[in-house]
Amino acid sequence: MAQKSGDREAYLWEEGDFKISRMRPCHLPQVVAIERSSFPQPWSYSLFLSELSNRAATYWVAFFQNKVIGYLGLWMVWGEGHITTFAIHPAYRGKGFGKKLFSYVLDYARNEGCREVLLEVRPSNVKAQNLYRKFGFQVIGVRKHYYADGEDALVMKKVF
């Protein structure tokens, strides 16, 4: 839910029924549910919780009609951004919500002084690669056996 009793959500960006806010512990049950439906080796609740206290990290959640439908995490260190995780609930994919959240975070990174942003993506995740390419990301390398199941990761980078 977007609101907890007596605790109004602080939206950073709004467009109709679509909104973005900073991730908080109250969002984690929905975030973890999306994570589990999106990835073969999902992050745990405790990992997300620990990331919320990581001073180099910022995490956002996307809402549609007051329901958490996606999230994105970004580390920023020495002018470099690194997208740590990004997912949209399967029922809301292909509707432009991921593009809006991704665009918001890239603007944030640039405005905070990042000169470039990197991420890893599975070679099998062609839809995600296509989205990243639309935002100017290019493959710059491969991390062999990066994922727990042994699949490699493509390293993609965008320079501002």
Describe this structure in words.
The protein is of the alpha+beta class and 160 residues long. The chain has a domain of 105 residues: 3-Layer(aba) Sandwich (Aminopeptidase). The protein contains 4 helices and 8 strands; from the N terminus they run E-E-H-H-E-E-E-H-E-H-E-E. The chain has an 8-stranded mixed sheet. The chain is globular, with a radius of gyration of 15 Å. The N terminus is likely disordered.
Draw up the topology in text.
Layout: E1 11-15, E2 18-22, H1 28-38, H2 45-52, E3 57-64, E4 67-77, E5 80-88, H3 97-111, E6 116-121, H4 126-134, E7 138-143, E8 153-159
Parallel strand pairs: 5-6
Antiparallel strand pairs: 1-2, 2-3, 3-4, 4-5, 6-8, 7-8
CATH domain class of the domain at 11-115: Alpha Beta
Q: What's the order of the H and E elements?
A: EEHHEEEHEHEE
User: What is the total tally of β strands?
Assistant: 8
Strand order of the largest sheet: 1-2-3-4-5-6-8-7
Strand % is: 35-45%
Residues in helices, as a percent range = 25-40%
Calculate the mean pLDDT score and round it. 94
The CATH architecture term of the domain at 11-115 is 3-Layer(aba) Sandwich
Largest sheet: 8 strands, mixed
Rounded to the nearest angstrom, the distance between the terminal CA atoms is 35 Å
